[in-house]
């Protein structure tokens, strides 16, 4: 790939917020997205992020509510909830690790969106969530799957109840292009 190809690829990606249908993502697509995210640079190679892949309708409803009623979260067949893992970063960097964990999670999320685009999937960065600036908590209470990582990264799992604790989350939603009602370029 040359620089012109890269620029053309980046310009072709756009954020999509309205999906129709609910065709699930192929497991191969999910594995590819995670594998690409695991190549993202991170502070001190701490990989201070975790991802929870949400496909359950009830959990997506709760996430949409926590994300200030952003409907696309409810409509997308899969939501990749990317959590900054402060503990992993702060164990090495102290207080600076908070910023580094946010940066690591942001970069990993960006790689996920680019990977989705490479697989002809649509995605949308979702930022605004309750819990920021003193508002209500953004932690969902519904049951959710354990975090996942690609084979290169640290494995998720462990106690589910602790994942949302201290989690500053963002998400990317993915869907097949044929299932789109509307696409808006950002």
User: At CATH's second level, what is the architecture?
Assistant: 3-Layer(aba) Sandwich
CATH C-level category:
Alpha Beta
Helix-residue proportion: 25-40%
Strand order of the largest sheet: 2-3-5-4
Radius of gyration equals: 16 Å
**Major sheet description:** 4 strands, antiparallel
Order of helices and strands: HEHEHHEHHEEE
The DSSP helix count reads: 6
**Given the C-alpha coordinates, what overall shape results?**
globular
Number of strands: 6
Count of spatially separate domains:
1
| Low-pLDDT residue intervals, each spanning 5 or more residues | 132-143, 151-168, 178-186
Q: State which percent range the strand residues make up.
A: 15-25%
CATH topology: NADH Oxidase
Task: For the record, give the distance between the C-alpha atoms at the N and C termini, rounded to a whole number.
Answer: 24 Å
- What is the mean predicted local confidence, pLDDT? 75
CATH superfamily: NADH Oxidase
Description:
This protein is of the alpha+beta class. It has a single domain, classed as NADH Oxidase (3-Layer(aba) Sandwich). It is built from six helices and six strands. The protein has helices at residues 3-12, 27-37, 57-66, 71-75, 86-93, 96-118, and strands at residues 18-19, 49-54, 78-84, 122-126, 169-175, 180-182. The strands form two sheets. Strands 2-3-5-4 form a four-stranded antiparallel β-sheet. It has a two-stranded antiparallel sheet with strand order 1-6. It is globular. The chain starts with a helix and ends with a strand. Residues 132-143, 151-168 and 178-186 have low confidence and may be disordered.
């Amino acid at each position: 790939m040359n620089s012109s190809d890269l620029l053309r690829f980046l310009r072709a990606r756009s954020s999509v917020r309205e999906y129709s249908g609910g065709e699930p993502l192929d497991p191969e697509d999910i594995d590819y997205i995670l594998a690409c995210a695991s190549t993202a640079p991170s502070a001190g190679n701490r990989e201070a992020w975790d991802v929870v892949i949400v496909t359950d309708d009830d959990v997506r409803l709760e996430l949409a509510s926590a994300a200030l009623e952003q409907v696309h979260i409810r409509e997308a067949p899969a939501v990749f909830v990317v959590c900054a893992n402060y503990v992993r970063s702060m164990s090495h960097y102290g207080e600076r690790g908070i910023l580094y964990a946010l940066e690591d999670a942001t970069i990993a999320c960006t790689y996920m969106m680019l990977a989705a685009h490479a697989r002809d999937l649509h995605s949308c960065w979702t930022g605004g969530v309750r819990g920021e600036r003193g508002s209500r908590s953004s932690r969902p209470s519904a049951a959710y799957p354990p975090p996942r990582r690609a084979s290169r990264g640290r494995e998720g799992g462990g106690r589910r109840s602790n994942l949302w604790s201290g989690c500053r989350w963002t998400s990317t939603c993915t869907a097949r292009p044929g299932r789109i009602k509307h696409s808006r370029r950002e």
